[in-house]
Amino acid sequence: MFVLLFACGAIVASFVGVVVARLNTGHSFVRGRSRCDACDTTLPSHALVPIVSYLLGGGKARCCGARISHYAPLTELLLGALFVMAYAKLGLVPLLPLMLVALALLLALVLYDLAHQILPPVLLYSFVVVAFLFRYLSAASQGDLQAALVAAALVGLLFLAMHVFSQGRAMGFADAPLALALALLVGPELAFAGVCFSFWIGALVGITILLRRPRGSRMGVEVPFAPFLAAGFLLAYYVIPWNPLYLLIAP
Predict the structure, then answer these.
(1) pLDDT band at 110; cut points 50, 70, 90
(2) Does residue 113 belong to any structural domain of this protein?
(3) How many domains in the chain?
(4) Which of the listed residues 40, 58, 92 is the one where a domain comes to its end?
(5) Closest Cα partner for 139 from 130, 131, 148?
(6) Among positive and negative, which fits the CA dihedral 157, 176, 182, 195?
């Protein structure tokens, strides 16, 4: 199952890359063959095997020898690993497919935000719906569902308030529904830990960027926050429950 899910995650990540590249460009991500970014040659099937084709080709396109971005194999490795971790955490249960769909949508949102610094509504609100369904179906009781909704609403309102009071300079409007959906996905026990991790990771990356700027430069730096949100909440979801201290205090 681990091998199967890893392969599945890598294949899905490859398709997510196509969706992100073609979304809002007028090109269909369902029809049409993949082409080389450098020479526009139609790529054969054997050049599109996730991770394997990149490694066998030495990171270069076989058609023209152009260097291929390492982002594609890295995202394929990442989503494959996340699929395996989701199975290890949840087991082979009816909720697992929903979690896998949520992870694929989250990857698409992160990649699109990194490329365009915007979260497309079609992906964002699909993620919100899937996260709500996951929490609704996983809630053991009405009280658990209400607690999850309250925690998610508070998280969403926090990010909305940061957007409003900073007039969009500190936080984008779309980060509020994204944070709300992530809080629904991880549950009320881990939602606020996810927020803390997101800001800590964002602060570390921001400080690193500032330290690497040329001396004397006063140019502002805009960094998309969706990757930090995704990293923070996934870190809380996958790591905290395995922490011995958490196991001692968990009900």
Answers:
(1) very high
(2) no
(3) 2
(4) 92
(5) 148
(6) negative
